Known about the structure:
The complex is a heterodimer.
Chain A: E1 3-5, E2 9-13, E3 18-25, E4 31-37, E5 44-49, E6 53-57, E7 60-65, E8 70-75, E9 84-91, E10 97-99, E11 103-108
Parallel strand pairs in A: 2-11
Antiparallel strand pairs in A: 1-3, 3-8, 4-5, 4-9, 6-7, 7-8, 9-10, 9-11
Chain B: E1 5-7, E2 10-13, E3 19-24, E4 31-37, E5 44-50, E6 53-56, E7 65-68, E8 75-79, E9 88-95, E10 108-109, E11 113-117
Amino acid sequence: GQNIDQPTEMTATEGAIVQINCTYQTSGFNGLFWYQQHAGEAPTFLSYNVLDGLEEKGRFSSFLSRSKGYSYLLLKELQMKDSASYLCAVSGGYQKVTFGTGTKLQVIP
Amino acid sequence: EAGVAQSPRYKIIEKRQSVAFWCNPISGHATLYWYQQILGQGPKLLIQFQNNGVVDDSQLPKDRFSAERLKGVDSTLKIQPAKLEDSAVYLCASSLDEIGRGAHNEQFFGPGTRLTVL
């Protein structure tokens, strides 16, 4: 089966750095996705990690440790528009993608 | 490039009625997904198609839900009869890579259909 855990809510200040953690236990692992979802909108792709280590893409970075079943999404220089839910999702056997419940991030001035 | 299209965007029905949703994926995308997203939760996979074959439908409530993907392109998801707990957003997504090709399967989501069952 698949089990993905991430915090329900987080609050951070504009301009700061925030780290959103995700732990997973899955049968089969191909890679891990992070998606951003603004309220009332569809999820949009942020990153995909296959190998251990940090992948940086602008203000967003994603880290993966396959041996620990752990990932995090790092958001730097937070902006108000970063207020959204961040979904951790694991790609397992047959490319099946299982989503976590999401972390609702609120950025405050 | 056109994105994933879904219709209708909103639907309100009474319990025990039937409803159908339509999805047109991005041209050339082999894999199509239907998700159910209840407010405050992550998307839950209902069914995954590879071209016009079903890859995974283990979480589809088959006594009331059905889905098809004719000719490996458009897809419809039907609920018959609907229950109150079916109130959710139904998301359709598609991805380019076929199973086994190794590249990641980034999913492109449609705008979703918000279903309210009264």
